Rhamnulokinase (Pseudarthrobacter defluvii), 494 residues
Amino acid sequence: MSTGAGAAEGGVFAAVDIGASSGRVILGRVTSAGVALETVHRFPNGVVERDGGLRWDFDALFAEVLAGLRAAAAAAAARGEKIASVGIDTWAVDYGLVDSAGNLVAQPYSYRDDRSRTAVAPVHAKLDPARLYQTTGLQFLQFNTIYQLATEKDLDGLQALLIPDLIAFLLTGVRRTEATNASTTGLFDAVAGEWATEFFAALGLRKDLFPPLIQPGETVGTLLPDIAGQVDLPPETPVVAVGSHDTASAVAAVPAVADGGRGENFAYISSGTWSLVGLELKHPVLTGASREANFTNERGVDGTIRYLRNVGGLWLLSECQRTWAGEGFQPDLAALLTAAAALPVGGPRINADDPYFIAPDNMPGRIRAAVRRTGEVLADDPAAITRCIMDSLAAGYARTITTAERLANREVDVVHVVGGGSQNTLLCQLTANATGRPVVAGPVEATALGNVLVQAQAAGAVDGGLAELRRIVATGTSLDRYQPLVAARQGCVN
């Protein structure tokens, strides 16, 4: 993939991009013609049952990161290129605990583990939820870092590193917490942009439990000599902080300037395993109404605020596919979506962001059970279940955008869908129908582009701020556009 002009010659950057189900190491080549992405290594990711809970196999994950960086070094060397830096983005909220010697004491828990559910009430007994929101602006989710930490028994001598920060630490030996991810912990002051140290004290946590903050574009450190030898890169190769929360990187690459200069009037949907739906603001919205609507205020690149809600995502469909495959049925995804699109509007829907759907387990059965609880019936048919998922996601997107407009006093002209879901033509059209706004779909690789472009900006290979990064993406990316169909919208929104 390549993006349009606006970049200087010579930058080659390695992006480590890890999601909840898979990861990749990507080379981004920045030239006067734009940015070209080359995936040099792919690997699976997922939770495992270990030591009494759902955890990430972090040792295996880090080994794949090293393999990917070796592949990146080899690919660059084959072209006579030098990798200028490495940037890391992953999902949010989860962390590893490291001792004073730098050893990971256990494989990190996954947010899909149910352990933090019982910690919510004790945390709220010490910190009133209204006070929490007025300071952090964070959406209530039972797996937020603050609740996970409340389940830990003994943190003496340990430090918590969020997953991308943990990877950066193992590469460089330097402990830092990147700000966009720190803002998802429930321990970060949304206005001051610093740790909310009074909350640490109230919960009996050390104020230095997390390392100091670092901003996107700042250098974490350079590769440890042993690591450099393992990946065939020079020890002076810097690891640069990017929007390490993958959504922060994805939103940085929203091609909003393509909308006739009305970039400030867009809503975004970062569509993948989860859907992150919201607006980009200059200041957080910390009102009681915002808290009641369960919106979050997270940091973005260049100090922006990602005002959003988590909505269910394509996890629902991928889990259905996994269940069907286990039953010996492996439908082609394109054919499945075509069959779903042929079904009439007005079918049953679910609340796609219900915590009932978080854990992995017989997703088709759970979706049908949820429909039954609404008094409707959903056929045990993959096309019907797929259509239910797509309709439910689109309706959830529309509700979320409408609520965000009201709470932030902002009118939306266009909806940008980035990430894997931008390839789902049925979902994009249903979203246009449900929102009554045009949908611009793409880029698919928004997260990797945001990661690479922040590195390029830090290296001086790109001039300008966030608007220039977006202009580079918009100029050369192939985008698909969907206009709302009024008749379909009437059947899609309730």
Notes: Confidence is low (pLDDT under 50) at residues 1-8, 487-494. The first strand starts at residue 11 and ends at 18. The chain has two domains: 11-91+93-244, 254-442+479-494. The chain is about 35% helix and 20% strand.
